[in-house]
Design goal:
The complex is a heterodimer. Chain A is an alpha+beta fold. Chain A contains six helices and five strands, in the order ββαβββααααα. Chain A is 35% helix and 14% strand. Chain A has a five-stranded mixed sheet with strand order 2-1-5-3-4, with helices on one face. By secondary structure, chain B is an alpha+beta fold. The longest helix of chain B has 20 residues, at 263-282. Classes of the chains: A alpha+beta, B alpha+beta.
Chain lengths: 178, 289
């Protein structure tokens, strides 16, 4: 159990990754989880909930896919693109999903919100026009202990139609007249 | 948690992974998706070996079989046209039930087998498909029937081996061949209280030509129900036979009581889910049910 260098000899390793578009180089312990490293680096929007992959509060996108950062070793993020809730708004402008969460009262205490927004964003990037079932399915890994899921589901559906309308407005005339 | 980990390795191939596992002297742990390894939180681990770069993420055809690399994720299985068209999408349905989207983006097929849980959702569909596990160790590769592997997955027999891939021989064809995956959990993303998979091939007169029934979370390892399968073969599938088979599987399983459900309840659910599975299999074949 006690290695030759003693139990307190903390080994470290280098981690190169991109977080919210920024290329970074961190020193981590080999057994650290991505959740712990992100929070240590100040990404407090990544919430520590159940630490068992059940509540979804720690969700981030890795190469565009939602994952639970409490279940991934930080070392596994080597060379990958991580998006946390801090990187979802661009230049202070909220993502349509974030706007819709505010408009629909889908935020109460806010603890589950970053994870839900992250998963909803990944869904809309993959499926711009999801059914209600698909939205519920995408949010199924995110527990809310305040009130429930109706408002978040409404918000994601509203964000989808808003994004669709925006896309329609910029369509060239020829396509609209068809 | 994992405070004693001294090194994190990312081997680029199976041989390198095995060498690291060998030199870890029992203190190394193989990790892929992490959804079981991290939750286990084994404090004695000193070396982590991440096999997700070892070239084991693939879904291929080989001769008359489908071959799935160990680190293929549940999300990849669900999205694969090859897996969608295999056995009526049986494996897709099971993979889809393996937790939430963020879990399915991490969790791997090999990990689901290597963790050796009696409730492993991918085990029963693979059992009805007569799947085999390809293991690699210092001596080379060998192929084991899945049932044999699952029976020993939690012993230390395979401590110095690696699950490399799962091989699924092409199932019997014909329009009478149908498949079903049934799972009962508290929520849509929960672990199984009981899960049942079935494969059924009826002949033109509605007689059972070929059948497989497998049950999970009701014995020390996921299991086939050979007694029930034998009773069905050659007979017309009607309500009386369904009732008989429901009762037979309840006799064949050996569930325990735990926080999730009592043994009595699980036994009852085995009957119910087996009947549902066989009904789903037989309905589109136009038999008398």
């Amino acid at each position: 159990m006690f290695g030759s260098r003693g139990v307190f000899a903390m080994k470290t390793m280098e981690l190169h990754l991109t977080v919210n578009g920024q290329s970074l180089n961190w020193s981590i312990a080999p057994g650290e989880l991505l959740l712990d490293v992100l929070r240590r680096q100040g990404y407090f929007g990544v919430k520590r909930g159940c630490e068992k992959g059940e509540c979804g509060a720690c969700a981030v996108l890795v190469d565009g896919k939602p994952i639970n950062s409490c279940l991934m070793f930080a070392a596994q993020a080597e060379g990958r693109h991580v998006l946390t809730i801090e990187g979802v708004a661009i230049d202070g402008k909220l993502d349509p999903v974030q706007e819709a969460f505010l408009d629909h009262g889908a935020v109460q205490c806010g603890f589950c919100t970053p994870g839900m927004v992250i998963s909803a964003k990944a869904l809309l990037d993959r499926r711009p026009d999801p059914t209600e079932d698909e939205v519920r399915e995408a949010l199924a890994g995110h527990l809310c202990r305040c009130t429930g899921y109706l408002k978040p589901v409404e918000a994601v559906l509203a964000a989808a139609s808003k994004r669709k309308n925006r896309a329609r407005r910029v369509k060239p005339l020829t396509e609209v007249s068809r | 948690m994992f405070d004693k980990v001294e090194a994190f390795y990312r081997p680029a191939n199976v041989r390198e992974a095995l060498r690291l596992l060998q030199s870890g002297k029992g203190q190394a742990r193989v990790v892929a998706g992490g959804t079981d390894v991290v939750v286990d939180g084994d404090d004695s681990v000193r070396f982590l070996i991440d096999i997700t770069h070892a070239g084991l993420s693939y879904i291929r055809r080989r001769g008359t079989a489908s071959v799935i690399g160990a680190t293929t994720t549940m999300a990849e299985l669900e999205a694969s046209p090859q897996i969608q068209s295999l056995a009526g999408g049986l494996l897709c349905k099971a993979a889809h039930s393996c937790g939430s989207m963020p879990i399915r983006n991490l969790a791997t097929l090999g990990g689901n087998m290597a963790n050796g849980s009696p409730a492993a959702d991918m085990a029963t569909p693979l059992l009805v498909l007569d799947a085999a596990v390809v293991m690699a160790d210092a001596k080379g590769r060998r192929r084991l029937p899945l049932a044999e592997y699952l029976g020993n997955a939690r012993s230390n027999r395979y401590a110095r081996s690696l699950v490399v891939e799962i091989v699924i021989p092409d199932p019997p064809r014909g329009k009478g061949c149908r498949w079903s995956f049934q799972k009962l959990g508290r929520t849509a993303v929960d672990i199984s209280l009981v899960n049942v998979s079935a494969g059924l091939h009826l002949d033109s007169r509605g007689r059972v030509k070929w059948v497989r029934i497998a049950l999970g979370s009701v014995a020390p390892a996921p299991m086939r129900a050979p007694g029930a399968e034998q009773r069905m073969t050659g007979r017309i599938l009607d309500q009386a036979l369904l009732a008989e088979i429901g009762a037979e599987v309840a006799r064949e399983v050996s569930p325990i009581s735990d926080a999730r459900a009592s043994a009595e309840y699980r036994r009852e659910i085995c009957s119910v889910l087996t009947r549902r599975a066989l009904e789903e299999c037989s309905a589109p074949a136009g038999c008398s049910l």
